[in-house]
Amino acid sequence: MSIIHTFIVPHPPLIIPEIGKGEESKISETIKAYDEIAEKIGDLKPDTIVITTPHSIMYADYIHVSPGKGAKGDFREFGQPNVSFETEYDVQLADKLSVLAANEGIPAGTLGEKKKSLDHGTMIPLYFVNKYYKDYKVVRCSISGLSFEEHYQFGKCISKAAEELDRKAVLIASGDLSHRLKEDGPYGFAKEGPIFDRQVTSAMSHGDFLAFLNFDMDFCHNAGECGLRSIIIMAGALDGKAVKSQLLSYEGPFGVGYAVAAFDVIGDDNERHFDRIYKQKEEQRLNHLKENEDEYVRLARRSLESYILHNKRIDKPKDLSKEMVNQKAGVFVSLKMKGQLRGCIGTIAATTDSIADEIIQNAISAGLEDPRFSPVSSDELAELEYSVDILGASEPIKSIRELDTQKYGVIVSNGYKRGLLLPNLEGINTPEEQVNIALKKAGIKPTESYQMERFEVVRHK
């Protein structure tokens, strides 16, 4: 056996009557759909329920699988300590999953548990399942800051582990959608919120798992999504399988999107290996970028690749434009991989004899010396996307009203403390956000006095 059925569910605590105290009536379609899938699980009688949740132990670079024989939990965080749960873990399947993930080079396993108790992203699905069926064990998996593709690969490991152990298993992907659907919602309104929910529910309805992998990470951040990586793990568990897809409900009255969907495995389908399709399209996209990058970006790429592959700092090419050779400026070089920042180092003002020298220096530093990341390896070079920002001269400003996040970057300073933020960054929508982040980078408290400067950049991508 293996994964025979999967489900996508939300986890609003108020769906529990003791917590909602009548408010749950506003998401009656969600409750109806939840009962429908819980009854379906009761009919299937699985040996194991795998639950992926955004609210278990979460690491930036590691997918956590809950260890041990079992765990307990309750809703005391939401004022109801008497609504409690106790579940038994499928230890053998969790261990097998950890081994398979390690064999595939996926950072995942049972290490580093900081909090043993069950989270609400796990307990809410179990609340409904337990109405109809209780003779099961659980494997609880977190999400992480790893790429969408790595979460998909982890899902494939879940399916393989269940198959090798002959488990009859279902997978529940626990996760809300956008948290930014309404001004009075938990995180206010963002235009990306409703768009995200329309696109992701359409993908659920059509079983289009490639669409999950294709979401832009900055767009998802702006939308305030919660459960996409949880859903992508589910998609990976169905890799190569034909499925019958049903979007059973969608509601968002509280400013958060709640979707319930079901996917019944009906056979094999060699056209549904979405990781392969995604990888091919990504290779084509990256090749197109490389073929069309300008001399600034090309120099940054050549500089880092030469240093990593040959331990050699390249000489300044002779065919560069006069601006790159004769002018000086501060330069920031940014690296992205799989939609996520992989390194960024820059200089506020020129520290070398030319823009070209500044690019060479900062490209190497962005790849190897950004303290937030491990050094870029040779295996990663082909997947990197580069951008190069050439900074114009800065000018003092007296008011935040003189800033425009799309046009100007900002420098804040207090004595030797200085913080810089570039303009036109995804997710930075107001000057207040821009200044607050710059202050944090500088180590300056908002209550301290500080000076501000603004500057323009020319961005090369």
TrEMBL record:
It comes from the Bacteria. It comes from Anaerocolumna aminovalerica. InterPro entries: AMMECR1, AMMECR1_dom_sf, AMMECR1_domain, AMMECR1_N, AmmeMemoSam_A, Xdiol_dOase_suB. Signal peptide: none annotated. Residues 291-461 form the AMMECR1 domain. GO terms for molecular function: ferrous iron binding; oxidoreductase activity, acting on single donors with incorporation of molecular oxygen, incorporation of two atoms of oxygen. Gene3D superfamilies: Hypothetical protein ph0010, domain 1 (3.30.700.20), LigB-like (3.40.830.10). SUPFAM superfamilies: AMMECR1-like, LigB-like. It holds the Pfam family LigB. This is Uncharacterized protein, PH0010 family/AmmeMemoRadiSam system protein A/AmmeMemoRadiSam system protein B.
